[in-house]
């Protein structure tokens, strides 16, 4: 579960109120889109969820951890409960696809036998089983992002956070990436996808949290493209880029 209670974030250096009285609850197993224009507070929200930034006021709970009371020696374990998918992929150039995914398992001392079984499983899930021996430079942008998703899911985290995962790939492949994240969600992981691509959000529908000027402007479910015309909540206030 992810929960923010009366959260404010104020940056003293710049004098900016990045978040103001934010209250959000995301239950285990949900898939949620976080949308908002530049400066709306999306990046600050992610920093709170990954414990990179403390709130000025309020409390933040993620995967059973009260981040306000999280001791330093517990931070590595907490962060292992989150899988991150990045806009810029962050793959290791000198490692194959298999090795990139296996690396996160080696870091947490998973047995070799487990790694040999788990990596092919997640690569098959993202439809990259035939690219296991390829290097990142040999992959398309969409394929590299699929490796990123496989890596995020490899440790079987309770929460996956995808930060603008379609930002550096061909727009035609963006829908495929969201579909993969939905498949991961069906495997039991909670998924939070941050995006500014309102067309994607409107196509897939589901729960949308729209941030504006550091506040929650909209938090509700909308219909996807197939039945959006029959759902008044479809107009959630997303601005086109």
In short:
With 241 residues, this protein is an alpha/beta fold. The protein contains seven helices and ten strands. The radius of gyration is 18 Å and the shape is globular.
Largest sheet: 6 strands, mixed
β-sheet strand percentage: 25-35%
- Count of discrete alpha- or pi-helical segments spanning 4 or more residues: 7
Pattern of helices and strands: EEEHEEHEHHHEHEHEE
Helix content: 25-40%
Oligomeric form of this entry? single chain
Runs with pLDDT <50, length 5+?
A: 227-235
Strand neighbour order, sheet with most strands: 6-7-8-3-9-10
Report the span from N to C terminus. Answer: 31 Å
Q: What is the SS-derived class?
A: alpha/beta
How many individual β-strands? 10
Shape: globular
Average pLDDT number: 92
Radius of gyration: 18 Å
Question: What can you see in these coordinates?
Answer:
32% of the residues lie in helices and 27% in strands. It has 241 residues and is an alpha/beta fold. The protein has a 6-stranded mixed sheet. The protein has a 4-stranded antiparallel sheet with strand order 2-1-4-5, with helices on one face. Strand 7 (159-163), helix 6 and strand 8 (190-195) form a beta-alpha-beta unit. Helix 5 (141-154) packs parallel to helix 6 (171-186). It is globular, with a radius of gyration of 18 Å. 36% of the residues are buried. The model is unreliable at 227-235 (pLDDT under 50).
């Amino acid at each position: 579960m992810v929960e923010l209670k009366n959260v404010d974030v104020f940056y003293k250096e710049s004098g900016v109120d990045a978040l103001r009285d934010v209250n959000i609850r995301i239950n285990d197993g949900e898939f949620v889109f976080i949308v908002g224009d530049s400066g709306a507070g999306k990046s600050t929200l992610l920093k709170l969820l990954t414990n990179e930034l403390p709130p000025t006021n309020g409390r933040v709970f993620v995967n059973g951890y009260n981040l306000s009371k999280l001791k330093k020696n517990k931070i590595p374990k907490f962060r292992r409960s989150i899988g991150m998918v990045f806009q810029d992929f962050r793959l290791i150039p000198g490692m194959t696809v298999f090795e990139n995914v296996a690396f996160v398992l080696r870091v947490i001392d998973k047995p070799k036998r487990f790694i040999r079984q788990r990596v092919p499983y997640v690569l098959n899930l993202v439809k990259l089983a035939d690219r296991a021996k390829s290097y990142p430079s040999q992959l398309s942008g969409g394929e590299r992002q699929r490796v990123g998703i496989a890596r995020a899911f490899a440790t079987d985290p309770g929460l996956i956070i995808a930060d603008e995962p379609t930002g550096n790939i061909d727009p035609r492949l963006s829908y495929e990436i969201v579909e993969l994240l939905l498949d991961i969600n069906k495997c039991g992981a909670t998924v939070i996808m941050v995006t500014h691509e309102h067309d994607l959000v409107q196509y897939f529908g589901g729960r949308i949290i729209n941030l504006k000027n550091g506040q929650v402007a909209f938090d509700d479910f909308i219909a996807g493209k197939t039945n959006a015309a029959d759902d008044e909540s479809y107009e959630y206030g997303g601005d086109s880029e």
